[in-house]
Design goal:
two-stranded antiparallel ribbon, three-stranded mixed sheet, Rossmann fold
């Protein structure tokens, strides 16, 4: 019996075919280590644990990787408030998270990479985007030129302008003077999103700013809504914590 899964890109159920026969590699976004895990995390990780166990039951060799976000604005703020180091705070909540998942019977991942270990690579990737004209810097932030990505919005279902279809970006690259608004979600992986988010920032957040209909090009920022990330980012820890 074949396994069929829903493909968020094609919007239909398709036969599950691993890249490598008999082997499945799973990446499950882990916790943001500025505070304790909550029931929403438990639900999410339990679902992925069931998927992992079922794939193993079906005979697949499964390798599961789950990251720890151990550097981010809220981690820095919380550590400062408590008078401890960022490293100490992250270690405290990482250990607590693993202990609580053990209590729930959720099997541990095979690997737990930390965001801090990938920062040099993040900066390298961002510099490549800038060098290729796919990103630009404004006031210390780096923004991805979403109009340079023809398929922007195909996965998230979002478009750059009213009335346009997803994946049909219009207009040229947005100039810094034409920036009017920003949508932010705190994601440690910066430029690593390539489809559902197409923005990069050199700090611990990624940002998208859109062209202003006003000739003055004023800027305004709005945080993600209380129900999650307004960008439709399917892997961002912020979308699950709020």
């Amino acid at each position: 019996m074949t396994i069929r899964v829903y493909n968020a890109l094609s919007k239909r159920a398709e036969e599950f075919v691993p890249v490598h026969a008999g082997e499945v590699r799973m990446y499950v976004c882990g916790p943001n280590l500025y505070g304790p895990a909550h029931v929403g995390h438990a639900l999410s990780f339990m679902v992925f644990d069931v998927i992992r166990r079922y794939l193993e039951y079906r005979g697949y060799r499964v390798t599961l990787v789950q990251n720890f976000t151990d550097i981010e604005d809220r981690i820095i703020e919380t550590a400062r408030e408590r008078g401890i180091t960022v490293q100490a705070l992250a270690a405290e909540y990482a250990e607590r998270f693993l202990r609580e998942m053990d209590w729930l019977g959720i099997r541990r991942a095979d690997h737990y990479p930390r965001a801090t270990a990938a920062v040099p690579k993040m900066l390298e990737m961002i510099q490549v985007l800038v060098n290729r004209g796919l990103a630009y810097a404004v006031d210390g932030d780096v923004f991805f030129r979403v109009t340079k990505f023809p398929d922007y919005g195909r996965l998230s279902g979002r478009s750059l302008s009213p009335g346009s279809r997803p994946g049909t970006a219009r207009g040229g690259g947005a100039a810094p003077g034409g920036i009017s608004s920003a949508r932010r979600c705190r994601c440690p992986f910066l430029a690593s999103h390539s489809t559902s988010t197409a923005e990069a920032r050199t700090s611990s957040s990624h940002t998208m700013r859109t062209r202003s209909p006003s000739p003055r090009g004023s800027r305004a920022r709005s945080r993600s809504s209380a129900t999650g990330c307004t960008m439709g980012c399917s892997v961002c820890p912020r979308a699950r914590r709020r």
